[in-house]
Amino acid sequence: xxxxxxxxxxxxxxLTSKEFDVLRNKGTEAPRSGEYDSFYPxxxxxxxxxxxxxxxxxxAKFKSGCxxxxxxxxxxxxxxxxRDGSHGMERIEILCAACDGHLGHVFTGxxxxxxxxxxxxNSVSVKYVRGVPENAPPEVKVA
Length: 143
Hints:
Layout: H1 8-14, H2 17-23, E1 45-48, E2 54-57, E3 61-62, E4 70-71, E5 74-75, E6 79-84, E7 91-96, E8 102-108, E9 117-121, E10 126-129, E11 139-140
Antiparallel strand pairs: 1-2, 1-10, 3-4, 4-9, 5-11, 6-7, 7-8, 8-9
């Protein structure tokens, strides 16, 4: 997928309506409704549902109780962040660095894990893949 050159209609054809709403329109799925909220694989990784770029290892996923999949680190250079002042809140948005798909938000200071980051990710914006990505980069914090 050459996401850099895809227009809105190409994305509509490529994605389901739910994926399009979240990844392209920055929507949010209802809490506890996503297929990966309570899914904790012991191996494998998660890729962007839009462009299949590897984003997170299964080991980075943890149970936060927030209602969405939570990760505490990502593959290096897989994400980019933007300030998000929507809904009267000040948050840090996380996007796929390859296709600019909206994934969710990252929160810090909650002390759930040693990285002190919680990537709150919409299930519909990622896909689980068995195995380790080819040439897997190191995992890092983003905030």
